[in-house]
Amino acid sequence: MNTDLSPKAAEIASCARSLLATAGYNGFSYADISEAVHISKASIHHHFPSKAELVRTVLVRYREEGRVGLAAVAERIPAPLDQLQAYTGYWAACIRDGSAPFCICAMLAAELSAIPAEVADEVRGHFLDLTAWLAAVLERGAAAGVFALRTSPETEAMAFAATVHGAMLSARAYGNPEVFTQIVQPLLDRLLAH
Amino acid sequence: MNTDLSPKAAEIASCARSLLATAGYNGFSYADISEAVHISKASIHHHFPSKAELVRTVLVRYREEGRVGLAAVAERIPAPLDQLQAYTGYWAACIRDGSAPFCICAMLAAELSAIPAEVADEVRGHFLDLTAWLAAVLERGAAAGVFALRTSPETEAMAFAATVHGAMLSARAYGNPEVFTQIVQPLLDRLLAH
DNA sequence: TGACATGTATCTACTAGTTGGTAGACTGCT
DNA sequence: AGCAGTCTACCAACTAGTAGATACATGTCA
């Protein structure tokens, strides 16, 4: 599986990624990319044979990027609370500066039954990855006596992820990036053992 | 503003509503409705001049239904905790039986920048309504000493709504309605003053 | 009662524009 | 020579939406 792309292919993928974040799978077309990247529609097909393949490639790279990022957090930041804060802080920054106003897997999860199966598989994979990472952090924090979990680490992790995704939705609905922080900040405090 | 629809128009609107819940604004077409309701595409245009108008009508009725439902809960159920449980329980049932696997306003919020402005306005309106209702319930519960709020009722309400919406997303991603309950149940326990 | 009008609901047939995708030719680099 | 990358020109299918005819039910007036 080759994830290295030519410069133009990378540009197309990056454009597709931002279009996915704002409009979803059915909300953008090859014409949109064509215009943004200054290339003909046919040339996009040269790099990615189909829309499904393009989006799948975007997701594979997105997931890889996420795994690397989360692994780096787990490695470089010792305290579990700070690890969670690094995760939410990353998204707060992305939403605030508008560079990535939404997790594309959350976006595609909403459209799950209206997208190609191979794309849907990647979306499900991301949810599993993210929840596993969060559960591990929560479990470590609980073992260290920093977090007080009310349920299993897995359930707590799913709830955490759900709130973060819901916060992205709310920030978009209210047209206000600060809404994300406002919702997510208390989420961290609440986990602490008092 | 007339919200009474002829039987066929109501059937079209109800079909559009379920298509919106599963695929979103850009995920369905007049052809889908045409097939499901056994009517020609042109006849749909007789009842609703445009897609934007159709969806706006669906949202107006959806919001009205929601307001009536939430008002009934507030009126008939005395305890604030039971009121929240009625809200989440309603959605748990809808998701479990597949009748409404997603809040259409949450769905459309994700697509917010890719839908007509008049539709987007209704979506924003729903978020305001829902948060106001939740904030009122939370405030009443806090005043009665039942809930222990860590932040303002408004912030707590937004976080509550975000988790519920995120739980819908997760249930869809995992293809498992029980995930919704699993996430939302602890949310209620956590609010209680110990 | 009968004639005519009005309004609602439906249809077939059509439009212009967009969708994802293909064929084949041209360029320039190795 | 071969290949990666680009293009113009095209395609069939689909998109929301329109035009105009037809059916039928409900009036209202003479």
Uncertain stretches of 5 or more adjacent residues of chain A: none
Query: What structural category do the secondary elements of chain A indicate?
Result: mainly alpha
> What percent of the residues of chain A sit in helical stretches (DSSP H or I)?
over 70%
Radius of gyration of chain A: 18 Å
Q: Strand fraction band of chain A?
A: under 5%
Give the topology string of chain A: H per helix, E per strand: HHHHHHHHH
Average of the residue pLDDT scores of chain A: 96
In total, the number of strands of chain A is 0
Give the N-terminus to C-terminus distance of chain A in angstroms. 48 Å
Descriptive overview:
The structure is a homodimer of 194-residue chains. Chain A is mainly alpha-helical and 194 residues long. Chain A has a domain at 60-191: Tetracycline Repressor, domain 2, CATH 1.10.357.10. Chain A is built from 9 helices and no strands. In chain A, helix 1 crosses helix 2 (30-37), helix 1 packs across helix 4 (51-76) and helix 5 (80-96) packs across helix 7 (117-143). The longest helix of chain A is centred in the last third of the chain and has 27 residues, at 117-143. The first copy, chain A, is elongated, with a radius of gyration of 18 Å. At the A-B interface, helix 6, helix 7, helix 8 and helix 9 of A face helix 6, helix 7, helix 8 and helix 9 of B. Chain A binds a DNA duplex (30 and 30 nucleotides) through residues 6, 8, 29-31, 39-43, 45-47, 49-51.
